[in-house]
Predict the 3D structure of the following.
Amino acid sequence: MLIFNPLYPSPIFMPMSKILRSTVWTTASTVINIGLLLLQLSILTRYISADVFGQIAIINLFIEIFTVFALGGVSNFVIYKKELTQPQHNSIFLLALASGFLTFIIFFLLAPVLAFLWGIDAITVPLQIIAVILPISAMAAQYQAVALKRFLHATVAKVEIVARFSAFIIALLTIELGLYCLVSAMVSYQLFRLLGFIFVFSREVNFSLKFETNIIKEAVSFGTYDIGGQALNIVRRQLDVLILSLTLPLNELGIYHIIKQLASRPAQALQPIVNKIAFPAFSQEQKNIKILSSLFVDIYTIQWFALALFYAPMVVASELVAAILFGSNIAEYHWVLSALALFWCVRVGFGNLTGPLTQAVGKTKFGYYWNLCLLPLSAIIMFLSAQFGLLELAITLFAFKLCLLPAIKILVLDRIIKISFMQLIKPVVIFLLPLMLIQSVVLYAGNMFYPLQYHIHLITLTISLCSMGLFYITKNKQLKNSLIRLKELA
């Protein structure tokens, strides 16, 4: 039964009626993708040396930055622009394709230079191979944007699950290739994803040779700030790897990369939900501040609940988690994992929704200038803290992110929606801190009565986490109301 909720407009007038189903499928896809990636990483760390993971960390740094330029920001423009004629979309598709291939050529030619500057000749060919991701991603982003605009999240999720599983199989089959195993897995995922999108969304995209080039100027204007903001954000996100790649040997960089992969995965798992659910949802209410603010708070609350479920055990039981997934060698760095987990938790918890929010209201320059101002400050702080060690760097990152919360509210959020500082802090106090406390008590009791019994500790921690999660869903008024409001739209 469809129930009208005065906070949100009737689903009759907008595709928001599909938000719950979209969330379920996006979450399912995210969980499966993250699970396969962690399983793949857990297996490969036992066969591939830490040096190789140091090399892939540097490759990841380069390809992430260039991917932003390959996408050109025009896929987000497709979602932002509510109505596009077919000739207009054909023009945008061609623009994205040109951007992807141009970036590919530049990156391919720069690969030897980048390898030389970092003093690692072994990554030259892998960089040139992985460059094919750039035009592939540019094309896939256009198919995905059209699908998300029509709320076909379920189909997108199915394609991504199949692509991830196929890439996982390829990684296992090529495990003896070392660095090329990791490269082949990355390329194959993007390729299978594109082929899947072409197969299922060709009718929706319906590309033809009819063009309307007037739209290109508006798309480029939108995409310029979007590219700048995203590129600066990625550089800031990968600044630790950039600095450590210049100061640490590959072996230690590889260990840090493995720990960072684990610490960042739950946070990065929310990115598809934000980009595929929140952005089009916010776009529908870009002119209604009251409804937009209510929608923001609801998604923000649910997001923090999900983050707390993932990060409470990772922070408290970091040694157990690292030992089970990667073995005793990586488990020695469990304090680094705890600190990095806290950093990624607050990074995404406080800042994750600002991106789609600014994009939805067409104020992408906010994100651009925000990241532009933070980049030099982040670089100085990371460089200084990295001189003292990995743990000191991780702790500094966490503390720095906490200090940025007031600035995020005043400089970004308050210019778009109405939200109080208490509304930003409340989910942390309600969800994260109690879960960490309970997990600490359970782990302490387990160590007291069953020392070194990892399987018992894992079971008790999981049971306590699931119990608390169920308690929050059924008893916590704020979370319950947020879930109900979204459910009523289904």
